[in-house]
Design brief:
295 residues, alpha+beta, Butyryl-CoA Dehydrogenase, subunit A, domain 3
């Protein structure tokens, strides 16, 4: 590849970087890992011959997807207990709106509820669904990527689609979202069990992800009473909670003495909190930039 060809390819890659980050974030559920995937693809691309490629964006898309598939498979092989909940790395924004850098990542309502469902999919299912249903990549192209026939790739996406369609559909009224999250926080601060139950859906799910800590530290709780009891235990940290948008929806972060201790994303449906996703994994919290929230 000549210097001029390399420069031209680099320019086309930069033109598509936001698109590639959006693909990688949906596949990996992590901004930092998405950036790693895009960078790894560029390293591979810089050694490739693009002279015969007719559709560069399609080539870039499947190339990044291949890197993400490798990362998903590696992640799954490292997890000692795949049944423990894994909360995706959230995008934290101030109350007045999402950072422009992250707007493309959150297009198509990529809330935590959707990403949590993605985390339950097998790597090939996740890749097939994201590529086809979100980015309209034909199954013929997906098939070679996941090493299946086009019909099998279609089945992968279909299985994933059924799981996604079963996920709760969030209410879009952010003002009402904030009212409920604030009411949850106030009840936790006051250790008011009944007030906590009042804002929770009877079948609410709480996921707590503490990462690579002793077995059982990460957990999933179901039901308003069980979640409310956990909310009472949160009362000691509630005073350190600060309002934030978590993947574009009302939530909060917990910052004590300048240290980020947790990020809580809420899913509100039909006027009740139906899911709470609490990330407390110190390693992954260290990857988050909460400076956008100010002092």
């Amino acid at each position: 590849m000549t210097a001029n060809e390399r420069e031209w390819l680099a320019e086309r890659f930069e033109d598509n970087r936001a698109h590639l980050r959006a693909i990688a974030y949906r596949m990996l559920g992590s901004v930092s890992e998405a950036d790693d995937a895009v960078q790894e693809f560029w390293l591979r691309l810089s050694r490739a011959d693009a002279s015969g490629v007719e559709n560069l964006q399609a080539w870039f898309t499947t190339g990044v997807a291949r890197v993400c598939l490798d990362m998903l498979r590696s992640r799954r092989s490292r997890r000692e207990d795949p049944l423990e909940p894994r909360v995706p790395e959230p995008i934290v924004s101030p109350e007045d709106g999402v950072d422009p850098e992250h707007e493309a990542l959150l297009a198509d309502s990529v809330g935590l509820a959707l990403l949590v469902v993605f985390e339950t999919l097998a790597p090939a299912e996740r890749v097939a669904f994201v590529l086809h249903d979100v980015f309209a990549v034909p199954f013929d192209e997906i098939a070679s990527l996941v090493e299946r026939t086009p019909a099998a790739a279609r089945q992968l996406a279909s299985r994933a689609r059924r799981r996604v369609q079963a996920a709760p559909v969030p209410d879009v009224d952010r003002v009402h979202q904030r009212e409920l999250v604030d009411a949850f926080l106030a009840a936790a601060r006051d250790a008011d069990f009944d007030a906590l139950v009042a804002v929770l859906d009877p079948d609410v799910v709480l996921r707590i992800d503490r990462g690579a800590t002793p077995r059982g530290a990460s957990r999933e709780l179901r039901g308003a009473r069980a979640v409310a009891e956990r909310g009472l235990a949160f009362s000691r940290l509630a005073p350190f909670a600060r309002r934030a948008l978590i993947n574009g929806a009302a939530g909060f972060v917990v910052i004590r003495e300048g240290r980020l201790l947790g990020v809580a994303g809420f899913t509100v449906t039909h006027g009740k909190i139906v899911e709470i996703d609490l990330l407390m994994d110190a390693a992954r919290l260290g990857e988050l930039d909460v400076s956008v929230l100010g002092d």
